[in-house]
Design a protein that fits this description.
The chain is built from 10 helices and 13 strands. With 337 residues, the protein is of the alpha/beta class. Helix 6 crosses helix 7 and helix 8 runs antiparallel to helix 9. The longest helix is centred in the C-terminal third of the chain and has 15 residues.
């Protein structure tokens, strides 16, 4: 396709994003960024002393997927679990102020909301501190989530599952999602966790990264091979995952090597990276799954959706923190072949 026509087609898809209604299901987190500068080493231990200059808070995990979606459409709903602690309050406040529907978020007084703190100095991450307690979903909580899904899915064009392995996504919930998505002809995109045995049979697309693909396929990770389509170990991992997950499409993200798409029963195709500068990969996967789902909901082919997701993640890694990509930035990227 000529460059002008190609860019025009991507632009047409992007223009459909505001009308798309997307439901996000998964593990919710709060991302805290502590910004500072380092001028000396501690006399107590060989570690840098960070003089704090500021703090920032962002919705993380599945909530960051919702945040990315909100840049393109006002119709975003979220389902997950949060504690009734201060981190949970801050997270819900951030989501509600962004205009994200949080009616599907359950609050549990016994749960500590997951919070990931990153200390950044001179545009580099010094350390990350995780505070979390994986929820053990009760039958009542899972039943309530399934009951809510029945109503929320009817009003959605696409569903994103962001499974961070923290406990909200269980097999009963996943099975209900898969059955309902097939019955209602809904787009179902899954960002899976490699250390769970959850089945996603019949999903529209599943998007692991390279390491996750090898782990989920129960194969030893190997060093990347270029050209990507000559990476026999990666292609074998993809073949096994298509057989295991029985998803219609598989998109494996490869960092600086772009993405590998296994579409239907067709041959694998490689989408080269669009990233120019890489400052921070935090949240790039969330950006990719958000734009991938929006694209499919807007009527894109799997190849077109992968291309838009690739362009969006290439923009995201050029920013510090769990940054979102704007519609204007993605539209500008669509003008280049």
């Amino acid at each position: 396709m000529p460059a002008d026509s190609y860019g025009e087609r991507l632009g047409e898809l992007l223009a459909q994003f505001p009308a798309c209604r997307i439901l996000v299901v998964g593990d919710l987190m709060l991302d805290e960024f502590i910004w500072g500068k380092v001028s000396r080493i501690s006399p107590e231990a060989p570690v840098p002393v960070v003089d704090v200059t500021g703090e920032s808070y962002y919705a993380g995990g599945a909530a960051n997927v919702a945040r990315n979606l909100r840049e393109f459409t006002a119709h975003v709903a979220l389902m997950g679990m949060a504690g009734t602690d201060g981190a949970g309050d801050r997270l819900l406040s951030l989501l509600e102020s962004a205009g994200i529907d949080t009616a599907g978020v359950q609050r549990d007084a016994a749960l500590r909301t997951t919070m990931k703190t990153r200390i950044i100095a001179r545009n580099q991450q010094v350390v990350r501190v995780d505070r979390e307690q994986k929820p053990v979903m009760t039958e009542a909580q899972t039943g309530r989530a399934i009951e809510q899904l029945n109503g929320m899915m009817a009003g959605a064009d696409g569903i994103v599952v962001a499974d961070y392995g923290k406990g909200f996504v269980t097999q009963p919930l996943a099975s209900h999602l898969c059955r309902s998505a097939r019955a209602q002809n809904k787009i179902l995109a899954v960002d899976p966790h490699p250390h769970t045995a959850i089945s996603w049979s019949g999903a529209t697309v599943i998007k692991p990264n390279r390491l996750e693909a090898f782990l989920a396929a129960r194969l030893p990770p190997t060093e990347p091979v270029t050209p990507v389509l000559d990476d026999r170990a990666l292609l074998e991992a993809g073949r096994r995952l298509r057989q295991l997950w029985q998803a219609r499409n598989l998109l494996i993200t490869l960092g600086e090597n772009g993405m590998l798409l296994l579409e239907g029963d067709g041959a694998a195709s490689h989408i080269p990276t669009r990233a120019r500068d890489v400052f921070d990969v935090s949240g790039a996967g969330d950006t990719a799954i958000a734009v991938l789902t929006l694209s499919l909901a807007a009527g894109a082919t799997p190849a077109e959706a992968a291309e838009l997701a690739n362009r969006a993640s290439g923009i995201a890694v050029g920013k510090l923190g769990t940054a979102t990509v704007t519609a204007a930035e993605l539209a500008a990227s669509c003008q280049s072949r």
